[in-house]
Amino acid sequence: MKPRYWSLAIVLILINYIIFATLFTRLLDTDFSAAYVTRTPQPTFTPAPAQPFVVIPTPTPYIPPPTPTATRVIQPAAPPAGDSLANQPPPPQPELVAPGPVNIRSGPGLNYSVIGRLNPNTTAAIVGRNTDASWWQIKITDDRFGWVSNSVVSARNTENVPLAQAPAPPPAPPSPQPASSAPPAQSQPQRPKYQYEPTGWYDDTNHGLTRFMGEIKDVNGNPVNGVFVQASCGDYSTISYPSGPVGWGALGESADWPPGFYDITVDSKPVPCIWTLTVVETDDRKTVKARLSESVPVEVTFDKSVIVANWRKNW
């Protein structure tokens, strides 16, 4: 027999010896305890310690880790080009239609002044509303807005119309005061700004020359003599002889004029221009000391070159 088997046999004999010794000891303890309850316990037999032995562990089979498997990822399909936001139609804009003529006011209320009018079947863009949406703010021009009442128009797409700030309401009209028993004081008529003002102007079809003429009278219709009238076109200017049969200079020009009449002959042919006529104060027909009227424009053409311009003296 091989030495290896002899060693295994000796180990098995030792194991059997230990097992039987242990069982025998427990059996003796049980029998003696039952028979002699009051007897003083005797020392327990302790068997000799067993010789150490080696237990060969059972090998555990190796289980390889699982091989990772690639997971397929499904990409979402791209939306068709026709569904992009760029191709979607814009949302409908708020607007209104006036079935008939509608007043446009400066604010949301009948107490605001009328600033325009919508003609029948006119469409206008809505840009704002008042608190209860009873008035719509519309765009008249790029920098001008107005208000129309919702009760006289047909509005649509108004769900998201923003609240617009209304202008301050106009002041209330003053309360009527009780009539005074005293007669009202007579107000003095306002004095005109200029001493002379134009009256009764017209043109003549005679185009053989350029000429300005007319009559100068006071507020009572009486002729006024000694008045000068200036005619200007650009840098050119000329002043008439004094009105009436006053006469001027060594030759006594205008001595045969009717009372209040003046005459300026500029040229023997038409001089088309936007001329201005002004009553002036002068001593030598060259230097203007003061302007006694506003400068009134008058057009001279080839067909209409004779102008009749009358004046009234206010004071």
Can you describe this structure?
The protein has 315 residues and is mainly beta. The protein folds into three domains: 1-56; 95-156, Roll (SH3 type barrels), CATH 2.30.30.40; 196-313, Sandwich (Immunoglobulin-like). Helix content is 10%, strand content 31%. It contains one helix and 16 strands. It has one helix spanning 3-35; strands at residues 95-98, 102-105, 114-118, 122-129, 135-141, 144-149, 154-156, 196-204, 210-218, 228-233, 236-239, 261-267, 273-282, 288-291, 296-300, 306-313. The strands form four sheets. It has a five-stranded antiparallel sheet, with no helix packed on it. Strands 10, 11, 13, 14 and 15 form a five-stranded antiparallel sheet that branches. The protein has a four-stranded mixed sheet with strand order 8-16-9-12, with no helix packed on it. β5 (135-141) and β6 form a beta hairpin. Mean pLDDT is 82; it is low at 50-55.
* Architecture (CATH level 2) name of the largest domain: Sandwich
Query: Tell me, what's the shape?
Result: rod-shaped
User: Cα-atom Rg, whole angstroms?
Assistant: 63 Å
Strand order, largest beta sheet? 6-5-4-1-7
Task: Quickly list its features.
315 residues, mainly beta, SH3 type barrels, Immunoglobulin-like, 3 domains, 5-stranded antiparallel sheet, 1 helix, 16 strands
